[in-house]
Amino acid sequence: MPDVYAPTTAPNPKTSWLMLPTETLEKARCGVKVIQVLLSFVAFILEEMVISCSSCSALYFFEFVSCSAFLFTLLLLILLYTSLKTRVGISCWPKLDFVYTAVIAVVFLLSSIIFTSSNGDTTLERTAVAFGFLASLMFVLDLVLFVKSAGFPFRRDVRESSNGGAAAEPETAKLNTPASATD
């Protein structure tokens, strides 16, 4: 029996549900995002293990930020590395990723500073804060890698036409120009 179906049954890598790397997230940034998820999760777990607090509002703020950073970064990582991002309906993934990462970096750093200044100075609280600062550092590193690889996402390098799309370059060749000087 001839091998008739062999060429048509090869897997198509573009239809895979997991795409490594993608146009919005290369392998280095993926590794940084995985570290962000892990550090945020550890900071959250350590904070949850604190039994008593001297300033509970700082503890609760750190809890909210570390849990939010863990969950939303995990969600963003899943969306950026799977085919789910095509089903969500968002077309500006680089801008979303940049803004999200910048906001979480600032808020995580702020919550870590506040929790440092008003905690009970127990080993558990200091360890949670250390993981908070490490997670903040990873979010800043992600921003640096983003700008280094893709540039600033809000810069207007491409001219836009009146309908919002990229404008066509003006034609440089003149129409109706004679082909030779003798015409």
Automatic annotation (TrEMBL):
Region (Disordered): which ranges? 160-183
Q: Which residue ranges does UniProt annotate as crossing the membrane? A: 30-46, 58-84, 96-116, 128-147
Q: Where is the MARVEL domain?
A: 24-151
InterPro entries hit by this protein:
Marvel (IPR008253), MARVEL-CKLF_proteins (IPR050578)
Membrane topology term: Multi-pass membrane protein
Name of the protein described by the UniProt record: MARVEL domain-containing protein
Which residue stretches does the UniProt record annotate as biased composition, category Polar residues?
Answer: 174-183
Q: Name the Pfam families on file.
A: MARVEL
Compartment(s): Membrane
Per the UniProt record, the lineage of the source organism begins with: Eukaryota, Metazoa, Chordata, Craniata, Vertebrata
